[in-house]
């Protein structure tokens, strides 16, 4: 890529390079942003094969398969390389043309691919078979020396995963479980979700630890509210009983005694039998009445 960019003026080359770096950084996590950077690079240097290839992968990541295929074809014409052949075939699948993808799997270009490229082409061909509803044929397509090998290569996990998934789709669950387990052994970087698929088959349910903690806190909060409400109800009942000890509608108590009792109990309401309604009485008023009564007695 650097050699290709050297054909551009220095300032332009630096600008294109910065955009290509952003494409590489964002394509997995933020494909739409990566696509936007790729369009800038393409506008600046459309005659550079590396730029056309990067634009193709950015379009592919955003499922713009027609655009991606056009960019890959342009890059291939510029370089004469066949390394993009598998992803070009997969674009045909994305466009709903699995027959074309299968046809490409039988072209002479496949023989020129390195081992990784040939495995990738096998994965694409198996996917095309599945697109056409040919599950058994997809399983047979994936059966290869690379699948049977015990050595772990960069493509091993993906190949085993595709095989396990095809077996499961065909209803061969025991075999699928075996191959998901083999995928886990090879997938040291967690590139696939084989461990989750295997756990699902075994009936294991994963719980989000953070969500579980939040749920526990919510339950504790609700329980605490209920306890506080119960305590408040108990206190209300105690207060009522306490007031009843001093205010009884059936007793003809001395008003001064009632006033002192209510003041001591912080009771601010009592029943006045004379006008048949409640009157508000605060502590200061009760104290004043009681003092007046005592002074009257002395007099």
From TrEMBL:
Region (Disordered): 209-299
Biased composition (Basic and acidic residues): 219-231, 280-299
Biased composition (Low complexity): 256-268
InterPro entries: TPR-like_helical_dom_sf (IPR011990)
Recorded superkingdom: Bacteria
Biased composition (Acidic residues): 232-255, 269-279
Protein's name in the database: Tetratricopeptide repeat protein
